[in-house]
């Protein structure tokens, strides 16, 4: 994979006429998807400058062409086991309001067109399972893709604290 790939925010005419496009990726062998229109860039993992007193899931910031970008590790955000980053680890830069945030994921999988009728609400799991970040689920072939709500995934209060520290 190239070091960095920029994605156009313009929808492909006709491709998503009956659905939405999602960038899918893996975190600890689970498949997730985010709205492709929120993705600005996919880049190989680079060193992150730690920020003192940041939430554990915020690994720090990077300088992306003059813009300070907070970096969120999705393994940590989802309370999964933390592993070393590999050559497949990437940062997906997404727009959240008028800001950008980087998401560390294990690997990018594909861009999928998922018809609106194929997206179902995530079931309530009860107990300790938090479905706050889940916008829905979709079955694509034999795999189940959990679609994430970026706005809920990235705690704006934590990001605002980071902006002051950076």
Rg, please? 16 Å
CATH architecture: Beta Barrel
What characteristic shape results from the CA principal axes? globular
Question: In percent terms, what proportion of residues is strand?
Answer: over 45%
Q: Tally the helices.
A: 3
**CATH class categorisation:** Mainly Beta
* Averaged pLDDT: 82
Regarding quaternary structure, what we see is: single chain
User: Any idea of the CATH topology?
Assistant: OB fold (Dihydrolipoamide Acetyltransferase, E2P)
Count of the separate structural domains: 1
As residue ranges, the low-confidence spans are 5-17
Q: Quickly give the structural class.
A: mainly beta
CATH superfamily: CheA-289, Domain 4
- Neighbour order of strands in the largest sheet: 1-4-7-8-6-5
Give the proportion of residues in helices: 10-25%
Task: Specify the biggest β-sheet.
Answer: 6 strands, mixed
N-end to C-end Cα span: 30 Å
Q: Sketch the topology as an H/E string, one letter per element.
A: EEEEEEHEEEEEEHH
Query: What is the total tally of β strands?
Result: 12
């Amino acid at each position: 994979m190239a070091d960095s790939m920029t994605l156009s925010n313009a929808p492909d005419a006709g491709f998503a006429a009956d659905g939405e496009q999602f960038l899918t990726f893996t975190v600890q062998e689970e498949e997730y998807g985010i709205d492709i229109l929120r993705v600005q860039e996919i880049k190989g993992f680079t060193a992150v400058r730690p920020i003192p007193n940041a939430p554990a899931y915020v690994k720090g910031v990077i300088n992306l062409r003059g813009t300070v970008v907070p970096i969120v590790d999705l393994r940590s955000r989802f309370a999964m086991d933390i592993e070393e980053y590999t050559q497949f680890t990437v940062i997906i830069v997404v727009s959240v309001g008028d800001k950008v945030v980087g998401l560390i994921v294990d690997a990018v999988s594909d861009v999928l067109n998922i018809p609106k009728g194929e997206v179902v609400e995530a079931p309530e799991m009860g107990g300790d399972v938090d479905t706050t970040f889940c916008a829905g689920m979709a079955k694509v072939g034999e795999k189940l893709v959990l679609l994430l709500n970026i706005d809920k995934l990235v705690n704006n209060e934590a990001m605002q604290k980071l902006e002051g520290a950076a």
